[in-house]
Amino acid sequence: MWWMAGAAGLVGLAIGALLGRRGAHPGPTAVPTPRPAAASPAGANEQPDLAQVVDTHPAGVVVADRGGRVAYRNAAAAAFAGTHAAVLIDAAVDRHLAAARQGTCGQEVVELHGPPKQVVELVSRPLPGGAAVVFLGDITEQRRVDRVRTDFVANISHELKTPIGALAVLAETLADEHDPAVAARLVNRIQAEADRATRTIDDLTELSRIESGAGLTRAPVPLAGVLRAAAERVGELADRRRIGISTLGEVPDGAVVDGDRAQLESAVGNLVENAVKYSEPGGQVQLRLRRAAPWVEIMVADQGVGIPQRDLDRIFERFYRVDRARSRDTGGTGLGLSIVRHVATNHGGEVTVTSTEGEGSTFVLRLPAGPEHAA
Predict the structure, then answer these.
(1) Which of 1, 61, 87, 285 would be a feasible disulfide site paired with 275, CB 3.0-4.6 Å?
(2) pLDDT tens digits, 108-124
(3) pTM for the whole structure
(4) Domains of the chain, with CATH numbers?
(5) What are the two backbone dihedrals, phi and then psi, of residue 180, each rounded to the nearest 5 degrees?
């Protein structure tokens, strides 16, 4: 109930004042409207209207008198009226108010499937004289963050456990191996698994640095150089997989954004690397830079396996993979697209994707145009 922290005392005082001011038996639909503060002579002490104070609180507050009739709803609670969630919320509120008037404290989480999906927590408390109060808090974002955190812990444990377990088995096998040729193959496998663990740790370190904004520097960055660096970064991999990398149209040297060059090279490099890894041998990866005022857009398109529609909303999550088997074969850590998303956010931009299974994917990194390219 983190959303109630620091507010219970203040809300309690306001509720007492509200019930005392309105009497014990307000009408069944009595929902007071906070009145504006009256003008006071200069220098006079002003007392805030407690109803106005409660009305500004993000948590919903519903108060019932000892007869069970609603005496007060603040703005956050009243905002549910007229929505598809109102019936479910009102039913839960009525149930908790009835229990609280009998002296029972309560707590319940109501999940509203939307759209949009919403999760509301209700907390009820009895009040002196047989009255009751229910607090409503929107915990949708908290639930999402908790899910991402849980998934992250499970995924990082799996990602590091796999190569570490393989290293242990390979080392044990190597200790009893006397054939030099077999021993050499085992050493190569050990090196590959160690490299896999190192890549995961390096990507985690980079993602953590980008998420925190540590060391973020801003300067005019020519995007022509960023595209060249990205192509060079994956040049060897593209050659091995017989993937061509080409640029559509001209890349003007004047295309500039105000940003961190290292982060931008990391983001575009990850997009190009993914395009190469998920393309079939002999395929093409196309890069394009264009102006779409007030943005500059970097497009990376491939002719690869594509992404199922059901996965498009999740591919930017840490460690999320559409095809885990293929990711193992290509050496991916599942962190590249998460890095791209955070770089876009750090620069006030966004990254989008369109894809068709079996035909390929197109990613667009959209960034605010820098001063040299804004005109």
Answers:
(1) 285
(2) 999 988 777 889 999 99
(3) 0.56
(4) 2-33+49-138 (3.30.450), 144-214 (1.10.287.130), 217-375 (3.30.565.10)
(5) -55, -40
